[in-house]
Amino acid sequence: MSIRNLFKLTFTTIVLMLAGCSGGVLDPKGQVGMDEKNLIILCTILMLIVVIPVIVLTLYFAWKYRASRDFEIYTPKWAHSTKIEALVWSVPVLIIVALGVITWRSTIALDPYAPLEGQGEHLTVEVVSLDWKWLFIYPEQGIATVNELVFPANKPIAFKITSENAMNSFFIPQLGSQIYSMAGMETKLHLIANEPGTFKGISSNYSGAGFSGMKFNAIATPTEADFEAWVERVKQEDTALTSGTYKELAEPTENHPVTYYGDVSDGLFHEILMKYMKDHGSMDFYSKPDNAATGMKKAMPDMHKGHHEEVNE
Predict the structure, then answer these.
(1) β-pairing verdict for 240-241 and 263-264
(2) Is the pLDDT of residue 289 over 60?
(3) SS3 assignment, position 171
(4) What is the set of domains in the chain, with CATH numbers?
(5) 45-96: per-residue pLDDT in tens?
């Protein structure tokens, strides 16, 4: 294959690969996603400072010292160059230091648990990963949905995330960070959409047979009034999400349709969160947020005690 054809093939491959990035992390629609994209590009450029010269010099040396070439100068005993050693060590070290500083600063700036600064009041959404669907509870609005997440554009969303059973990963690629959902634990994530639109949401952690259909639409409405109108439409649904209907919903299903609940039992998310805390009260006790927090505090010393007893044995 000629060098010209090789370049054509390489260019075509790169174009096709970039075309597949549409709608993903490299096409962000939210501030968090934009910051993460800039971080990816910056780190890639810094690493290419080493990668590109290595590739170029490898090809150059292969051409320069080819077997068919006659050399005027032959130095078989050459083994060391202080200048080359200084160059090949100093540049990577400086890049690693720069990447370390960038990583440290971005880890703080993009902390998923930290509320987005300067964005006003946030919308709280409680997320539960089920087999194989997503449940979204709006505690302030008193509604819930399955496999559809709706929120106003330019309004920060505070997600509280847990799982009914298997660990999953909550991810809206165009809006930003992914975060794991785990049974008996609450993780947090803060995102915002800077423009209206419909964005794909997925689970990025394999969780069984129905994993491929565990997707949802994240819809950013143009205005808050549009969001409120959607809330009112959902409230017209005559289905309520209670402990009983939740147990039915938690049964494994594949490619579950979008479902709306016009009413939600108070404290249901805390009930789901605390259901695996055995021997520390009933489900009704943990359905109240204040009691759930108190129960967790009481449970922690007993769990540590049990752990120490197992270790001592």
Answers:
(1) parallel
(2) no
(3) strand
(4) 26-66+90-110 (no CATH), 123-297 (2.60.40.420)
(5) 999 999 999 999 999 988 888 878 777 677 778 888 999 899 889 999 999 9
Examine residue 134 and say whether the peptide bond preceding it is cis (omega within 30 degrees of 0): no
Q: What are the start-end ranges of the H helices in the chain?
A: 3-19, 31-64, 82-109, 224-235, 243-249, 268-274, 283-286, 289-312
Phi/psi region, residue 60 (left: phi>0; alpha: psi -120 to 50; beta: rest), is: alpha
The answer for residues whose C-beta is within 8 angstroms of residue 276's C-beta and 6 or more apart is 183, 184
- pLDDT level of residue 279 (50, 70, 90 thresholds): very low
The pLDDT tens digits for 292-306 are 444 444 444 444 444
Cβ–Cβ under 8 Å, residues 133 and 92: no
Token reading at 183: 């049974």
Query: Cβ distance 223 to 152 under 8 Å?
Result: yes
pLDDT at 294: 45
CA angle 16, 18, 24 (to 5 degrees): 130
pTM attached to this predicted model: 0.77
Q: How confident is the prediction for the chain on average, in pLDDT?
A: 85
Of the candidates 184, 181, 174, the residue with the CA atom closest to the CA atom of residue 271: 184
